[in-house]
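#struct-help
A.M.: can someone run this one for me? Single chain, 339 residues.
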Amino acid sequence: MRKMNRLIDGMGLVAGLMGALVTQAADWPQYLGPNQDDKTSEKIASTWPAGGPRVVWKAPTTDGFSILAVSGGKAFTLMSRDVEGAEREVCVAFDANTGKEVWAVPLGIAKYDGGGDTPARDHATGGDGPRSTPTIDGGRVYALDGHLVLSCLDAAAGKTLWQKDLVKELGAKVVQWQNAASPVLDGDLIYLCCGAPDQSLLGLNKMDGSVAWKGESDPMTHASPVVATILGVRQVIFFTQKGLVSAEAKTGKVLWRYPFRYSVSTAASPVVSGDIVYCSAGYGVGSGAARSPRTAMTLRPPSCGGSAATSWPTIGAPRSSRTVTSTASSASRNLASAR
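D.P.: on it. Structure tokens below:
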């Protein structure tokens, strides 16, 4: 099995900058940042030295696509490593000031069907490895591996506090090429989409992994959900193979749906701006945008699909998808999902 014990310049550079600023900069504790909007409140230099920013440290890494999550003076990421003769996904913690490895904890087997190292592919030279990024909160690290096992680790020492195997416990269905979504944490809950029948969309308690709420049967994608407050309502927006699904953050109640075509893989998270949610996918699919529901609602007559639902006009809907559907009952949820 090919081993790539190399220096990743991108990771080394980013880690170096974080190390230089860790005593004065805000944390970046999860994928897309502390507010799930890919924004930072820190001042970023508009001019750079001719030779680039000063690199404080670099760390050797192996294969993987996980980015760095930074919190409490440490930088965390996932990579693949040989562990007792088996290639494993490993969660690694670095000292953010020095780059020294603090601890490393093996997770699941690093095996990906049809991945970047598959011999049958003509361009199988790009490497492969974990795609998910850890989430840090309250001295704990939450890592979701490629086969949907969620691990909670102690950030200081790497001790495993609890694990939840979503396939064994809930009947989750791993997407082709394995999971790439990151666990998203907001308040006391961790949000995931796992593809399990009637419990695909999940809100898990961050302290013990128990299920706070569950629902729907949407097949999962490689996209991480996002959490946002839209029109005064805190909601988590999943990007499934059926399209966008917005659920009330505390209860999991489905608020609205936006049908969107799926082809091969959807990996980009939704982007929220005001009351508009943008989405996009490759493989010839394209992009779309939906305006979230307001107080004024227009009912769709039963003749349009057999069961009353509420709909709003969309902006730039893809192909034949022209409505965002709000679901007030399980019957209308099923109707919206089928479209």
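A.M.: thanks! The first strand starts at residue 6 and ends at 7.
D.P.: also worth noting: Confidence is low (pLDDT under 50) at residues 1-23, 295-339.
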